[in-house]
Amino acid sequence: MNFEIVAKDVMGRIGKFKTPHGTVETPTILPVVNPNIELIPPKDLKKFGAQMVITNAYILYRTRREEAIGKGVHKLLGVDLPVMTDSGSYQLMMYGDVEVSNGEILKFQSEIGSDVIVPLDIPTPPDADYNTALNDLTVTLEREREAVKYKGESLLALPIQGSTHMDLRRKSAEEALKIGGDVYAIGGIVPLMDTYRFQDVVRIILEVKSVLPSNAVVHLFGAGHPMMFSLAVALGCDLFDSAAYALYAKDDRYLTPYGTKKLEELHYFPCSCPVCIKYTPDELREMEKEKRERLLAEHNLYVSFEEIRRIKQAIRENTLFELVESRIRVHPNLLKAWRIVKEYEDLLESYDPFIKHSFFYTGIESCYRPAVRRHQNRVLNVEIENDDIVISSDEGDLADFYLKAPFGVVPAEMMESYPAGHSEVPPPELMEEEALRTAVEGLLKFLSAHPSKTFRLRVGSIWLKYLKDLPKNVVIECLDRKED
After folding, report:
1. What does CATH list as the number for 3-341?
2. Fewer CB within 10 Å of terminal CB in the chain, N or C?
3. What stretches of 405-472 adopt beta strand conformation (E)?
4. Where does Zn(2+) bind (predicted)?
């Protein structure tokens, strides 16, 4: 076992990933190091928070083959960190062909002492026709099977492909699992990220996670923007590779957890990293291009690793849901993407911890948390001794049960227990309709489970329009309706 989970929340986790060159704490980012273009010296990446880097074995093979074999990839790059090597699949996707076979590039990765090697998979573009995606996947799986014999002392990453065909993504994960990898790398998502198709990305991740065991290390290839990290971690991704810090810097783009800014648009830096403290936007704009790119790349790394640390703290505090729900509001497509989790309730519930410190309501997305569904199901098992039961929406009212959004029915004895008791929720009149409807769904399930009892439902008038088709054993009393 190369992976030990030490803390978890939602589907995310903090883990210890053991490699030949040391243990890496996940989730983390692997900065992409171009062996021939040194924007930031690889030896300096530690100061930003890097624990591991990734470089392109195909570029090394083409340009510095003998040197790489003689020195090894770690000495060549000048790092003592674990190094993952990509096989050239990106070049294959961009240019349609590479001048190396799968066996040759795998052997080369092993010879240069890569900690994690990757076969030459076929990254099928989004929306490819089914037969093309299937044929590409067949080749990828053949190459993954071939990769096992080149593994040696290295760890093996097996790419998960299949374009936007979810059954092929599942098939890819199932077959990779049979082959047996140390890392399962979800590939082919860069074009989706570039076009803000976050819904497709989320669905692909969840389909793959539904196949992989909970202790599988998951790498999300090409997801290098900090605004995406919390969502991807919450869905169970552990490793990310970022070329974005450098690519964006070359285009004078400034990364934040809330999106990307053009340097020309900035009057003030909203960050407190060493770069943003030392310089103003005007000063960076006046610099020569090479220095400006390096400083922007440094900022982009600082802010990316800051977001990873923020995510880790949220996992420790069991507040990852709250962090994700704040981040997804930076782009409407992220918001739509996160709502897909409602279609994967069982999967999400199988990962999310049962007990947490508190439930902090941030909007209708909070209704999709496993804690809500779990509470509604568990309350059905509560034994009721009396025949006449009072359910009230007023927590100051003397009642047997309380109606509380978004949870539904809460026994009086559980009003101090997680999740409903340990919750920060606004009053019903300030909540979205989705939260009230979710609570009423739980109420109806509870009432249906006790057809022989008589219920007196004491509620504020805001609840009335949602209380339709109640069983005949329920009498409604309005707490705040004025008499005629």
Report:
1. 3.20.20.105
2. C
3. 408-411, 423-424, 454-459
4. 271, 273, 276
